Amino acid sequence: MVKLLGAILILFAGTMIGFQQAARFAERPRQLRQMANALQRLETEIGYGYTPLGEALRRAGTALAEPAGGLLISTADRLTAGEDVTFHECWEAALQAHWPATAMKRSELDIMLQLGTLLGISDREDQIKHLRLALLQLQSEEDAAREDQVRYEKMCKSLGILAAALIVILMV
């Protein structure tokens, strides 16, 4: 009876691990789409609203869900806190604080870090160009993430179940 209960628990745990890994593959394209939406909103605020960067970040961030909304609001809070910091420092600190909670990879972080070095130091038109470039790069990463999702999501689910079944068989 104890062996049966242990086997069921191992099967359940292995299945959940597989499904959790599969969920990360499904979450990444959604978060990339969300980040691209954040950059589009920021571009609109800067380009058409003639909004200062701190206020544009706050407005765009309040309209978005986590993690993109939190990233923009955190950057705006750091920027308007009255401390003598540059936009790049605020952006990098917000990325370091929010990035571990995302399903995104290092390549997307590099795109966002590069954007942080370019925003806030030039005129409005130049900032819009940099936002559009980052948007194109994120859309490219989103396409790759969708391909990864199709390729690996089902495999992770199956692998979790099969690994748990293997452990149960070896226990018996």
Q: Which percent bin holds the helix content?
A: over 70%
Q: Helical segment tally?
A: 6
Q: Let me know the number of strands.
A: 0
Specify Rg, calculated over alpha carbons.
Answer: 21 Å
Question: Summary?
Answer:
It is built from 6 helices and no strands. It is mainly alpha-helical.
Kindly describe this structure:
The structure is a single chain. The chain is mainly α. It is built from 6 helices and no strands. It has helices spanning about 1-45, 55-60, 70-80, 85-100, 105-120, 125-170. Helix 1 packs across helix 2 (about 55-60). It is elongated, with a radius of gyration of 21 Å. The two termini are about 10 Å apart. The model has no long low-confidence stretch (mean pLDDT about 90).
Name a few traits of the molecule.
82% helix; mainly alpha; 172 residues
How do the strands and helices of this protein lay out in sequence?
Elements (H helix, E strand, L loop, with lengths): L1 H46 L5 H10 L5 H12 L7 H12 L7 H13 L5 H48 L1
Helix pairs in contact: 1-2, 1-6, 2-3, 3-4, 4-5, 5-6
